């Protein structure tokens, strides 16, 4: 049996034991008993992963609390006016300015009225504006949580690191983790739990569990430029990204960043323009860090499903591309709850919510890993080149990015302890593999 599935079943069993003990002292729900409502805005990509995860969480919480706590799952329509407060005023602020402008232009181009239904239809399409719609809503979900308009949201760890707790930068450090089992060992360790709990005191929300929504990153290039050696990164052009640690990593490895202005017309010129395959084929960039959701999205554009023909603009010579399984950085998310809401619940219900969060988050991580393996097989089946990095070259890459560690330890000294724990678990993992 798959080791990850075994872990998930063990965690599920532990939750069942906890639930059984909680049943013993439950009191009948009366009409006068207060009900806590947890509003969860589910807009994080990939949506189908998190909708399934949210349903697992909702079912367990409502069952084990006998509906003293109910979970309301909201989509974009449920928070439309809060997500788009500046739409009617025709004025935008912050990161919404460019996004709202692009939405309007696209609606006009398609001959669609500026109705709520049309706005949601366009903005929910992850091909729109290079994924800008989805990225915006992820950030807006955290804003709505802090304003008290929702109770649960999800955010990338690098976003939380830049806007609250810088210790989360440690999770993205290059070549820290050796694989998904190592990642899981750390996330479920005392150090991982301590890091998760560190959001509470200062930032107004509590971390409940780690999710992936990406996982360990791999690298897409042309077949002639695979990232299989330390030297192969040098001089390659990448899109500029939002993560401080990943940008420093690529800089140390010799990569170059290109501004959006240099490929904007390509990226926004067609429904699939922003796809990494398209940008690489158009010579706008040379390489792209990708995660599982990215792989699945552009696979659907460039690989036909049975009985379906792709339009000419979506056709690529797949023999020209290669994916290198660098797994050089972890892209992860955190499932958070507003601290004020959490404290309004009884201790018993708090424990139920925390336990349900761990089970549902584990479910999402297992789903991510399985779909990663499925995507890998699908690529290989159509002749796509999939490469790995040798242990020797990985060590060279790790040595070259040592300045990234040094700089972070200087800026955030407590991250050194987090890394030490991760490395300790790494040695245990290596020993376990060697003993088999």
Task: Note down, in words, how this protein is organized.
The chain has helices at about 5-25, 45-65, 80-85, 95-110, 115-125, 130-145, 155-160, 180-185, 190-195, 200-205, 245-250, 265, 275-280, 290-300, 340-345, 345-380, 390-400, 400-410, 415-435, and strands at about 35-40, 70-75, 150-155, 205-215, 220, 235-240, 255-260, 285-290, 320-325, 330-340, 385-390. The longest helix is centred in the C-terminal third of the chain and has 35 residues, at about 345-380. With about 425 residues, it is an alpha/beta fold. Helix 2 (about 45-65) links the parallel strand 1 (about 35-40) and strand 2. The protein is globular. It is built from 19 helices and 11 strands. The strands form 4 sheets. The protein has a 4-stranded mixed sheet. A 3-stranded antiparallel sheet has the order 3-10-4.
- Number of separate helices: 19
The 3D shape can be described as globular
**Main sheet summary:** 4 strands, mixed
Q: How big is the Rg?
A: 22 Å
Structural class: alpha/beta
Which runs of at least 5 residues are low in confidence (pLDDT < 50)? 17-31, 87-98, 126-133
- Give the strand line-up of the largest sheet: 8-5-9-11
Overall pLDDT: 77
**Oligomer kind:** single chain
Q: Give the terminus-to-terminus CA distance.
A: 16 Å
Strand content: 5-15%
Order of helices and strands: HEHEHHHHEHHHHEEEHEHHEHEEHHEHHH
- Topology, number of strands: 11
Helix content: 40-55%
